[in-house]
Amino acid sequence: MARILIVEDEVLIAMLLEDIVTDLGHHPVGPAMRLQPALAAAEHEDFDFAILDINLAGQQSFPVADCLLRRGIPFIFASGYGQAGLNEDYARIPVLQKPYDPGQIARMIEGSAPSV
Amino acid sequence: MTPPVPADDPFAFLGHTGPAARLVRDFDWGRTPLGRVETWPQSLKTATALLIQSPVPIVMLWGEEGVMIYNDAYSVFAGHRHPALFGSNVREGWPEVADFSDNVMKVGLAGGTLAYQDQELTLHRKGYPEQVWMNLDYSPVLDESGKPAGVIAIVIETTDRVLAERRNRAEFQRLQALFSQAPTFMTMVSGPEHVFTLVNPEYRKLIGGRDVIGLAVRDALPEVADQGFLDLLDHVYSSGEAVTRTAQRILLRWRDQGPLEERFLDFVYQPIRDEDGTVAHIFVQGSDVTERVRAENHQRLLINELNHRVKNSLAAVQSIVTQTLRHATTPKDAAQAITARIMALAGAHNVLTRENWDGADLRALVESAIHPFCGPGPDAFRLSGPDMRVGPYAAISIALALHELGTNAVKYGALSVPAGRVRIGWSVGGDQLFRLDWTEAGGPPVVESGRRGFGSRLILQVLPDQLQGQAWIDYRPDGVAFTLTASVEAVRDEAT
């Protein structure tokens, strides 16, 4: 079982991710739904993996991604835009497309790090 | 009649047997002021022989009367006037230019010379008036005593050249008008350094009104040197191949010391070859298509945004379906609840779409959310609160929360009986704290159910999480009361 931080700005989708993560046998952390709470969670919460929506109520969540990279915590982006909205710094970060396939999320969590 | 022995021939001095020489020989000079040829002074003979020999059109006007003796080349020029013109007095031979001839005679016989370049005259040499241009050079012919006895004129018709030049000039002016009035930009750069030699007003506009004629591209537009355009010009110059570019990005400095501005250009570099076939110039022609490119980019952005919204909506529907099925007791209940929740989401989208997704008026949003619960009877709802706007994310959450509250009220609460009432009030406190109240009255007592379904999770957990506020619900004897508080900033989606 891993602790999964959920960063997602829309209530319905945050609830969906919580359910998917729980159903996969993991423990959801959050959801953090705005940039500042997400930054605080990324910096201070205890978790093994993060699902990071790129757009947080009109703000991009890249500072959160930078914090996760610094802490060495694996994560994936979630986006309705796909890979197109990403710059080179994040080219290696997988992008999860909406709507969500729980099987794909499971594989991404499993494939992220041996420690999970 | 026997041919005259050459030694005795009075016309031996001519030394020529062409048509004009024959005219001289056959003309009855006795009826002219010149008299019979045997009486001609040597100066007249010498001058006649000289002009008869010449391939250049020459006419001599002898004596006060200006008796005309001319050569073969001049006879071509004289047209239908020839040969009647030969031996006539110049003022009568060319009556239409008698005044002009008169002046020539006066000046010439006084020892002066005259020269005209492209002199325009109207002559009747073909039976109709004809505008002609000529180079005319007049000088006196002296007799044995050194006194002017006649005038010799070299007559070169330049009509064809003058008309050709006029046509060229008109053509050039047309091209210049085309060039300067063209809606596209045009310029010509010459030589290996690509020196600007022609610039039309549209091109000048493109480069911010800079004066570039006579300057090399590298010096005239230093900011484009490193953007590949010089390499492209070099390539066209050396290879002779035209180059076309579409929607090419370029950074141009429109104002001295000003910032570089991004433009997009469609253009062609067309090599222009000189007579020996080598590339001498490059003609540059094109259009500033910045507006078109920006519109295309904007459209692409809109399509991306639409795609994003669609994907988000699908995920939202996925959430509604999976969570509703999790808690539903029968497929029929599930189907009804799923439909109602999707309708609530769509209702919020409608309110937002009316305002371009910038946000929503809270009252309009509340009215849309409670619409499914308003029966045909007297209105069960009382709304009160100030005009205020909520952000698009908060709007969807609040609409979904009101839907869940309404659904519960219809099932178990105030809206399950005809006398039940719901008061929805909102306010903003002095501390910029937003407060939303849903207060039921007149219904049966409602007890808190032990399980946490979709609705309570949404309104009590995720909604306050999103708005970084608080939410609570009271199951009072007289009805359910729900309260949400959050900062106005958060409700406007402006909280970070």
Topology, element by element:
The complex is a heterodimer of chains A (about 120) and B (about 500).
Chain A: E1 3-7, H1 11-23, E2 27-32, H2 35-44, E3 49-53, E4 55-56, E5 59-60, H3 62-71, E6 75-79, E7 95-97, H4 102-112
Parallel strand pairs in A: 1-2, 1-3, 3-6, 6-7
Antiparallel strand pairs in A: 4-5
Chain B: H1 19-26, H2 42-53, E1 58-62, E2 67-70, H3 72-78, H4 90-93, H5 98-109, E3 114-123, E4 130-142, E5 148-157, H6 159-181, E6 185-190, E7 195-199, H7 201-206, H8 217-220, H9 229-239, E8 243-253, E9 260-273, E10 279-288, H10 290-327, H11 331-354, E11 360-361, H12 362-370, E12 381-384, E13 389-390, H13 392-411, E14 421-428, E15 433-441, H14 454-467, E16 470-476, E17 479-487, H15 488-491
Parallel strand pairs in B: 12-14
Antiparallel strand pairs in B: 1-2, 1-5, 3-4, 4-5, 6-7, 6-10, 8-9, 9-10, 11-13, 14-15, 15-17, 16-17
Helix pairs in contact in B: 10-11, 11-12, 11-13, 12-13, 13-14
Structural description of this entry:
The complex is a heterodimer of chains A (116) and B (496). The mean pLDDT of chain A is 87. In chain A, α2 (35-44) packs parallel to α3. The relative contact order of chain A is 0.19. Chain A has helices spanning 11-23, 35-44, 62-71, 102-112; strands at 3-7, 27-32, 49-53, 55-56, 59-60, 75-79, 95-97. The longest helix of chain A is centred in the first third of the chain and has 13 residues, at 11-23. Helices cover 38% and strands 24% of the residues of chain A. A five-stranded antiparallel sheet of chain B has the order 2-1-5-4-3. In chain B, α10 (290-327) packs antiparallel against α11, α11 runs antiparallel to α12 and α11 (331-354) runs antiparallel to α13 (392-411). Chain B folds into three domains: 6-162, PAS domain (Beta-Lactamase); 182-288, PAS domain (Beta-Lactamase), CATH 3.30.450; 327-491, Heat Shock Protein 90. The radius of gyration of chain B is 52 Å and the shape is rod-shaped. Chain B is of the alpha+beta class and 496 residues long. The model of chain B has no long low-confidence stretch (mean pLDDT 90). The chains are: A alpha/beta (116), B alpha+beta (496). Chains A and B meet through α1 and α2 of A and α10, α13 and α14 of B.
